[in-house]
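B., you asked whether I could sanity-check this one before it goes into the benchmark set. Here's the sequence:
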Amino acid sequence: MNTKTKNSVLVVEDEHDIRELLEYNLARDGFNVRAVESGEQALAAVGVLPPDLILLDLMLPGMDGLQVCRRLKSDGSTANIPILMLTAKAEEADIVTGLELGADDYVTKPFSPKVIIARAKAVLRRRAEAVHSEDEVLSFDQLTIHPGRHEAVVGDQKVDLTSSEFRVLHHMARRPGWVFTRYQLVDAVHGEKHAVSDRSVDVMIVGLRRKLGDCGHYIETVRGVGYRFRV
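And here's what the prediction gave me:
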């Protein structure tokens, strides 16, 4: 008998057919599912019983998904609940704003239930694997990152990185698969008050990939959004 605790998911979607589709497929895959149709209902549901994951449609009547995300991420009691954004528009501004507010990932409509389930499991897996400690050595095949030594090694060859390049690499590598906007990477390296253009970040990434050589493929461009460390 399987006694494994099921992950709970709160679906926030105002379109009836999509909401039922998500409920059915997530439940069939073993999730405990609750579903609501508005941002206000979502906040109330989280207040009663916080879920392990929220699937949040951005285009909601009344309080939209970005407002819900902002409220949840600004509250210490709910800030750590992972959010997978659902959006009918592939507009970069909405995706970037959601990620900068703290959402973990996004899927654009139309989508297949299999993709949603795979993304949901990936987000939960990354959260469950507790973020690596700042001093923990990270190893990915030929690439090894030593935070304590402030160095990266490809094979047996030390890579000559600037302080900023190393911090960007380490920041992304600690959360494989997470999408980071350019502004989030700047914040991680320099602090939120540091003014750096999108172009400057792109140039840094190009240089970082070049220095990593055969391991440069780990840094993936997410078009119109930013970058992620891909394993």
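One thing to flag: Residues 138-229 form a domain with the Arc Repressor Mutant, subunit A fold (CATH 1.10.10.10). Otherwise nothing jumped out at me.
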